[in-house]
Amino acid sequence: MSRAQRKIDHIHHALKTGQHRLHGLDDISFVHNSLPNLSVDKVNLNTTIGELSLSSPIFINAMTGGGGEETEKINRCLAQVAQESGVAMAVGSQMAAIKDRVEKQTYSVVRQENPHGVVFANLGSEATVEQAKEAVDMLEANGLQIHLNVIQELVMPEGDRDFTGALHRIEKIAKNLSVPVIVKEVGFGMSYEVTKKLKEVGVTIIDVGGYGGTNFSRIENERRTKHFSFFNEWGMPTAVSIAEACQFQRGTSVIASGGVQTTMDIAKSIALGASAVGMAGRFLSILLNDGVDEVIKEINDVHEELRFIMTALGAPSISSLQQVPIVISGSTHHWLTERGVS
Ligand code: FNR
Fold this sequence. Notes:
- The chain is of the alpha/beta class.
- About 45% of the residues lie in helices and about 15% in strands.
- It has 15 helices and twelve strands.
- It has an eight-stranded parallel β-barrel with strand order 4-5-6-7-8-9-10-11, surrounded by seven helices. The protein has a two-stranded antiparallel sheet with strand order 1-12. It has a two-stranded antiparallel ribbon with strand order 2-3.
- The structure holds ligand FNR.
């Protein structure tokens, strides 16, 4: 099967497999504030991740790598959404375009549609410094996402089997690139230990990509008869991943992602300490079912709803939302207690 066909398969299986709300964010409750002393029009949604300033805490996370007509069309539509709504956007893995120049148009269309927006390039941790520079140049990208997807590779018969040296390659890229590096998971979460190692080699932005939304073990298993289904329930839910990554990581910006679907999910992710929130499966599903205008409407609605939630909490900014009191219950509380995360 060609790489392009595999990527199309991912899109269709992602929609079919859907999102299961296993991210743990339902274990987070806000403490109601009857005296917020704030008006809706004073709420500011600007945020920063590393050295990057964003006008919205939400962004379109990486989805369409691999090339081909269908992915180019999806990239074009997502770029139109990003341009209209002012949110940042990541493309899917660009390795196909680096290996086969014909595929470049799949990605460069993103910059053509959205000349001034914040765009993230994307590669796996097998990338070299030269490939990382090429991926960034291809899009005039403002940052580079490096994805970690060990479980997805293991479940694929044609996937990688050797994961040595990834941290060293990431360090070299982080030290040699002129734009910030974001290291991200793809739905299995990231622990305190991993985020600490990344910070030590100079990574300043981490996207926890937690368990509970799009599930690449399920997606890969559905595509074939030999099942590695023991990986279907594998991973750290998004809520615990955010809390672990934020615990001792001064100087590192944490991005929440993995199953984020509602404005309340976004608000809770930020209250756990995230500076921004990535959404992939949710936007893909609206785009393919209802079209570009509906994704734009969804983003505008989320911005309005977030302003209302922040007003109710008395939080005029993203940094003040990160500080509001929350109560953590259920298995998220249990996990964080066991792991010594407060
Ligand atoms: C992805 N994701 C992804 N991530 C990445 O870093 N590079 C990639 O090429 C892709 N490709 C891709 C294709 C499709 C169809 C989907 C749905 C997702 C992973 C994505 O960025 C995100 O980490 C996970 O999907 C979890 O977030 P959601 O979907 O639960 O919001």
